[in-house]
């Protein structure tokens, strides 16, 4: 358990500095380019852990699994993380960090509708509290950054969908988190590279420019990499994306999925504090209120998950005892 808590601490630290590190190099790289580079590096860092998990499992990469990884990689890297990168360009790092941490809240209704998971009263309470927290942070009475807020929420919602796709893959193919992420990050990076190369075609770049999407035209692949930007790029790729996810999955192995999820409860509290000291982003009263509400909502969901796990364990134990008694009577 002690080892698991150490893994959680490192994962939470790396994830909490993600938006800050991206903000520091946001002007040096195109958002999609930075997205591609950090997930490519992250997939390479995760691959040894993924191969260790697959060793002796009889895993074969057939057409069905390949299509699954292409879809999950597209949702994560190409869709969700592109929204995420753009959100950081238009909004404060602390705001993006807090709102993106709410992706776990959006998983609740998605899991109910797509995976037919039971929607408990505590889960609904968690959802309501967290939504009120988001409203406090967004502050509709003084909403001046619609673009940044919208992109942050789109990133959180689509990442929640990626989480549902991951659960579906786990149920269908038996993938664990590290295998899911490693292959999805790699395929997503490859798909994003293809899209980046397409934007370099003359008429495509011209069309994007003409419709006001010049930022997505002629996207560079390696431009901007220099001695000044390499440290931040290595930190984002190796530590935040690679080691951050590695420690998260190792925490799952050492503890449990619900305990490891503490990472996303720590992030909305720690990220604004780090942003305050590093980027000088002020924490307003409404943001502080929102943080506290989101943390409260997350705690309610954690309690709900633990309660459900205990109930399922008791049901399973009763079934086992009942089966054993019937066998004994016979």
How would you summarize this macromolecular structure in one to three sentences?
The chain is built from 14 helices and no strands. It is mainly alpha-helical and 330 residues long.
Strand content: under 5%
Oligomer: single chain
* Integer tally of domains: 1
Rg (CA only): 21 Å
Categorize the overall geometry: globular
Query: What's the helical proportion of residues?
Result: over 70%
Structural commentary:
It is found in: Endomembrane system. The chain crosses the membrane at residues 37-54, 66-90, 96-115, 122-140, 146-165, 185-209, 229-250, 262-279, 285-304. The chain has 330 residues and is an all-alpha fold. The chain has 14 helices and no strands. The model has no long low-confidence stretch (mean pLDDT 79).
What brief labels describe this structure?
0% strand, globular, single chain, 330 residues
What is this structure's SSE topology?
Blueprint: H1 2-16, H2 18-24, H3 31-54, H4 63-90, H5 93-100, H6 103-114, H7 121-138, H8 146-173, H9 177-198, H10 202-210, H11 230-254, H12 257-260, H13 263-278, H14 285-329
